[in-house]
Amino acid sequence: xxxxxxxxxxxxxxxxxxxxxxxxxxxxxxxxxxxxxxxxxxxxxxxxxxxxxxxxxxxxxxxxxxxxxxxxxxxxxxxxxxxxxxxxxxxxxxxxxxxxxxxxxxxxxxxxxxxxxxxxxxxxxxxxxxxxxxxxxxxxxxxxxxxxxxxxxxxxxxxxxxxxxxxxxxxxxxxxxxxxxxxxxxxxxxxxxxxxxxxxxxx
Amino acid sequence: xxxxxxxxxxxxxxxxxxxxxxxxxxxxxxxxxxxxxxxxxxxxxxxxxxxxxxxxxxxxxxxxxxxxxxxxxxxxxxxxxxxxxxxxxxxxxxxxxxxxxxxxxxxxxxxxxxxxxxxxxxxxxxxxxxxxxxxxxxxxxxxxxx
Lengths: 203, 146
What we know:
Largest sheet of chain B: 6 strands, mixed
Strand content of chain B: 25-35%
Distance between the termini of chain B: 41 Å
Structural class of chain B: alpha/beta
Structural class of chain A: alpha/beta
Number of domains of chain B: 1
Radius of gyration of chain B: 15 Å
Strand order of the largest sheet of chain A: 2-1-3-4-5
CATH superfamily of chain B: NADH:ubiquinone oxidoreductase Nqo5 subunit
Shape of chain B: globular
Shape of chain A: elongated
Number of helices of chain A: 7
Oligomer: heterodimer
CATH class of the domain at 66-191 in chain A: Alpha Beta
Largest sheet of chain A: 5 strands, parallel
CATH topology of the domain at 66-191 in chain A: Rossmann fold
């Protein structure tokens, strides 16, 4: 059997090595500069910004997922709220089955019922005792505007005379589904909240 | 069922006992004058045949010409009830003797009447507003209140 001569290879060995050397040289000559960081166009502030937005989202998620309600039920809408809290409508699906007798442990006030001027200072006091951040849902016609008792001498025409209201749930009384919808609306509102301001951080 | 005592029967007894105390007597009630109210109430409560020891309610009505304070009292023992009314013609400063000394349940109701109709009960231990706040202008359940 005849042995092939070296010249019969497509490339002689030395040619292969030379071609390899050329590739290396080309790469070396074209790699004298450091490749820039792809995220370098993000300046420092923008970098912070993205991080803080994420913190906001986490804080808002935590807040809206466990709204604790202060007990402030002056009248008959309270029964619809109790129904919403019970097993049939099951408000605890949205993380707020807990009612707090102490306003200091609550962050949501559902104003279920007619408010008289005699009761108004106490309601405002309960609101003031709640820790920040706090929200208010005006539940029912009486809480929104005084309802059928609006022209009465002793009824407050709407809770928004006393305390700031975030969400209004109409009805007389509202069905538990309507209240749950109002709570969901409030949760969407909380999700949009900005907790940390960039201006304050810059200082 | 609780028997409603005829106002005319009671009026006859009252006229014997306290002459001049009855103003008017009807089938459903007896109207007495304010001066003899406490004596009449004590008589109705303590007489063994009547023994109206339970006061159902006290309320007041505005008839424009006069106020009328209505007392309904019931005897638990005899199972009968009686309505006594007192009229008060003075619209600017209406005063009627209190029955808190006889029926303690009249306490808050007389305060409610004072609060909403403006009738003062003489002898009440704590005559002040109960539902509305101090400083409220007027008496809302009067017919001329707007």
